[in-house]
Amino acid sequence: MKKVVKKILLKLYSFLIWSKIVKPEIIVMMDGGICSQMHQYLLGCIYREKGYLVTYDLAFYRNWAKDENGVFDRNFDLLKAFPLLCFQKANQWEAFIYSKVYATNNNYFDQSDEDIFLFDIKPPKYLGGYFHSPKRVFTDLLPKYFQVSPDVLDDDNKLLYREIESVKHSVALHIRRGDLKATHIAYGEPASIEYFRKAVSYMNRTLGEPYFYIFSDELTWVKNELIKELSIHSGQYNVVAINGVDKGYMDLFLMARCAHQITSKGSLGKFAALLSNSSEKIVVLCDDPSIEYVWKERLLNTVFL
Fold first, then answer.
1. Helix 248-257 with 34-48: angle, nearest 10 deg
2. What pLDDT score does 289 carry?
3. What residue ranges do the domains of the chain occupy?
4. Long-range contact list for 284-290, CB < 8 A, 24+ apart?
5. Vertex 256, ends 250 and 258: CA angle to 5°?
6. Second label for 216, Cα 20 to 30 Å away, from 1, 64, 75, 171?
7. What is the pLDDT of residues 72-131, one digit of tens each?
8. How far is CA 19 from the centre of its chain?
9. Which residues of the chain have pLDDT under 70?
């Protein structure tokens, strides 16, 4: 009986859109951490700038809100980090209907040719998953909509933010573990200890005496396993432990304030580099052919190790 009712309602709503009684919209599904939310928000901005009604489906944060292993929380932090964004949440019933009737397969956009993209999409449409985005999304739209404001930080993070400002050669060292510490279908092999060893050595050679601010979702592993493998002395680093998964966006802002970034698999270190205003920043990335062509043109002064 429920299936029949749902089917009738789906057809009814489709008729309302077709007859222009209900304004069609583009609904963008949001999931994942703060960087995924930023990326998905920008996807919606493409269409809002074309004059379409754009809303965002937050069902993931009501129903799951975990990483792929079901261990670490994933919170909806976008509006905590960037409270002035123009953001309209999708109606739950409309989002359900759109996901069943108007969904677009994101695999269509999983390609390196950025000329083939979403610009021909018109409402009604439901965009779920992770879409390949052209360079201008990161070079034009990201700085237009996202600026780091220390005002959203709590007192402890504001203190550390000001400290980082005073350090000439500050380096954000991000170690993503969690669901990316093993081989992942989208990200490939995890960043190795050897990669971090080479990255730290490179910064030491290039900058003379850098100071490392270390961020990770598994700080115990970093302290017990990684630190001893790096060419780094006790007065040369700070393992940042003031933020849990509920404050990942604060780690993002602290990393963005650093003069340089050593990134890991995942997006946090890379988005921190995108948010940094310094034209002299050095950004170290894993030598991974699957991401090289993408990040080489999005970021200045990239070094692949």
1. 80
2. 62
3. 2-145, 151-304
4. 284/199, 284/202, 284/203, 284/260, 286/191, 286/195, 287/195, 288/188, 290/188
5. 110
6. 64
7. 778 999 999 999 999 999 999 899 888 888 887 554 344 444 444 567 788 999 998 877
8. 38
9. 1-2, 5-6, 67, 70-71, 105-118, 178-188, 289-293
This prediction's pTM: 0.90
pLDDT at 167: 96
CATH architecture of the domain with range 151-304: 3-Layer(aba) Sandwich (3.40)
| Backbone torsions φ then ψ of 288, nearest 5 degrees | -125, 110
Burial string for 285-299 (b: 16+ CB within 10 Å, else e) reads: bbeeeebeebbeebb
